[in-house]
Design goal:
4FE4S_WBL, mainly alpha, about 0% strand, 4Fe-4S Wbl-type domain-containing protein
Amino acid sequence: MARPPSVRLVDPPWIEFAKRVLAGTPNLSGAACIGRHGLFDEQAHEDGETAETAARRHQEAAELCRRCPVLGACRTAWVDTPGVRHRPSGVIGGRTPATTTRGRPRMEAS
């Protein structure tokens, strides 16, 4: 009886591309933040959000992080590793963004 020819399955080009793009991304499966990116994003000035509202939202995000099952892996991947390229902005690993002001500093009156 003849042996059937072997078949080598090849992923489509877009899957190979996605694998290369995601190769350095940490696996944070089960993270509490999944699907809740709005809590973690930096202040959206263009949406008219006030600094106080953003601070409350960031506090809620940080509290969610503290209960997250992958908090340690998140901090290792995004916070504690120096020089991480493309680090997300906003709340990361339970740490809130530093308060910054936009625009030029005001000149003091003489």
